Amino acid sequence: KGIRNAPSYHASLHCRRYGYVHVPKKTTPHLLGHGSVWRSCYVVYPNTQAVDPFTKYQWLTKTVVIKGLPERMSKVVVPDESEVVANMKDHVTETLAYQVHDNPAKLHTVDLSTGLLQAAFSSVWQHGSRYNHLAHSNLTYNPNTECYWRRNGENYICHARPMYMLHTTNPLELFCDPGTAAQLPMPHTKYQPSFLGLFKHSFDQIDPFGGCKRQSPYSFAHTLFVEDKKSRTDDQTLAHGLMQLFAQAAGETVQNGYKLDSDLYFPLASQCVVTNGKRFTFLSYQLNTLDLSEQGGTRSNFLWVGPTLELYDGIQRGKGLVGFNENCARLLAQFLLHKPLRAKPALSGFVLARQAEEAKAEKRLGIKQYLGGLKRQKALQRKRKAKKQSNTNEEHHGQVHAGVGGTRDNV
User: Fold this and answer.
1) φ and ψ at 212, to 5 degrees?
2) Up-side HSE of residue 340: CA atoms within 13 Å toward CB?
3) Beta pairing partners, 281
4) CB contact set of 203 (below 8 Å; sequence gap of 6+)
5) How far is CA 114 from the centre of its chain?
6) pLDDT digits (tens, 9 = 90+) for 248-304
7) E strand or H helix at 219
8) Scanning 86, 229, 358, 378, which has its CA 20 to 30 A from the CA of 321?
9) DSSP classification of residue 109
10) Could you give the CA distance from residue 337 to residue 138 in angstroms, rounded to a whole number?
11) How many CB atoms lie within 10 A of CB 216?
12) pLDDT tens digits along 317-355
């Protein structure tokens, strides 16, 4: 009682009760489920403390793990390498001295990830004039990423928020051919969602998002910087980085209009640095397919697992920073200075058709709103005219009755 649009309200309650939610018009059209309803999805959390999460997330994202970074990373040249490393050491020392105040006990209580990464950015950005992608890039703090995919008939969704994301105008070159045979096999075990420790939830809105809008000139992810403080093992750290990379790449792909359950004609490559403020893990990823079914295509996604290094050993009273790792600083600079030389992708026929449909829909909506406004305006004019006519008739009848009464009085 007192609720507007009661039938639609009760219909939404009925859908929620049985795990279905009506899809809003904003949702991507090709993600609509059967009968214009959305099935509830299993929610995947990037940072998990489950047992053996890395193997499970490999199967969940159909990813093949390759030890070591791609060969191209070893060819990235850092100009004035000694100067860059020295500047990074000075910035890190100043950051730790400001936040820790030469007290080693504060290392476990102070958030160092943000400050240390900002120090690394400052030391590398001084050479941004030599690298066009740094001069024309966008560094976003704590962006939202969301992706949806299907695996063996089940729906999955993941929400991720890296600490920093570097976007550039051009995408990174592929690390290898998408059809290259993997060096390490993918786990063959088929996991059930209950074994993965996942639960279903219903959503009023599912909008795949890669962290940047399509209209932005910096629409391609270059490097993700992920803060990881809850992981207790290296396996959990790698699982966190893998799911962050997959969520961003899959969200960006679906956001740009490419279909699910199909191989990508334009694969995406990206990088990730996972850190807790002291330990840095370097990862490279290449999304080749969204066809994640066992009977699907022959392609798989690739993850290169680099070394895990500590940027420094610790802090001592009176000495400050102790044991600065130049190899970690050098590798971090190489990740930032990796040039994206790949040309922008041409829009596929499906994307062009979808954009044409969206333009027609907007045009129809504009015409409909215009005609609706004219209709309301004409209705209002008719209403005013009828009201004016009724007032005129009332005045006329009042004058007639007044004349008749005066005649009787005279008689």
Assistant:
1) -155, 140
2) 26
3) 274, 308
4) 21, 38, 40, 41, 157
5) 20
6) 999 988 887 777 888 888 889 999 999 888 889 999 999 998 888 877 677 889 999
7) none
8) 229
9) T
10) 14
11) 13
12) 666 678 888 899 889 988 988 888 777 765 555 455 556
Q: What is the mean pLDDT of residues 22-29?
A: 42
The Cα–Cα gap between 172 and 103 comes to 41
Tell me the whole-structure pTM to 2 decimals.
0.74
Q: Which residues contact 295 (CB under 8 A, 6 or more apart)?
A: none
Helices 81-100 & 113-125 angle (0-180, nearest 10):
150
Q: At which residue do the structure tokens 């799911």 appear? A: 243
Q: Do residues 273 and 281 make contact, with C-beta atoms less than 8 angstroms apart?
A: yes
Rounded Cα distance between 338 and 174, Å, is 12
Say how many CA atoms lie within 13 Å of 398 toward its Cβ.
6
Identify the helix (H) or strand (E) that includes residue 187: none
**Encoded amino acid at 106, one letter:** K
H helix intervals, 148-273: 234-255
Asked if residues 224 and 211 have their Cβ atoms less than 8 Å apart, the reply is: no
**Nearest Cα residue to 279 out of 244, 320, 223, 232:** 232
Nearest partner of 257 among 341, 350, 183, 153, judged by Cα:
350
Q: Are strands 20-22 and 37-39 parallel, antiparallel or unpaired?
A: antiparallel
Which amino acid, residue 46?
P
